[in-house]
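Section 5.1 Outputs to date
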Amino acid sequence: MNYENILSEQQNSIVTISINRPSKLNALNKATIQELHEAFKDVDGDPNVKVIIITGSGEKAFVAGADISEFANFSVAEGGQLAAQGQAMLFDYVANLSTPVIAAINGFALGGGLELAMSAHFRIASDNAKMGLPEVSLGVIPGYGGTQRLPELVGKGRAMELIMTGGMIDANAALTYGLVNHVTTLEELLPFTQKIATKIARNSSVAIASAIASINAGYEDGENGYDTEITEFGRCFGTADFKEGTQAFLEKRKPEFPGI
């Protein structure tokens, strides 16, 4: 599929999706959110894809925020609809994908950009990265899940401070906070991320999907993560991947998971 605002490239079982609006510092507009949804949906349905990397094109920005010009004159109802549609179409959608998503944060990840990165299953940042949720400086709050995912990742107090000050933190602070898992040089960001993605791709995609569902359940209202874990654990026993994994272990060889 041809896209105007993103690039999608597959190497072996790893797909890298890049937001490609360098003149706008890769800011998210409606069209880009729609294209990202379509790209993630297409890739998640491909059994040959084991890991997705999301990043920004160029060296300056992952995503510098939302395209403010699109909603500056919205009404209360339109603002609520904007958040609801964005969360359903992209941010919650990514968080609940069965294919693991890694955010490779290069440069600025602000507002909707940081919210997109937080929707990924984990994050790796280059040493020039700057992260923040500056929405209150515009008279609004994060609307794409930022007030929920940031406290989950860094704790309530740090999230309160970051959101209320509208400030930015650098990559090393983000590492200390637990917002990102690793910090690399800009040059090593994608190779390092691809190395981790390759390790993930060697494992059972079916088991990984079950692990994602179980972990996410522990953060959802009305869900019991332990119960979900029990259900998903049992479900794994009926998969070809489980049979292959256990047989390979007993035969002292590397497994070749069929992904079913």
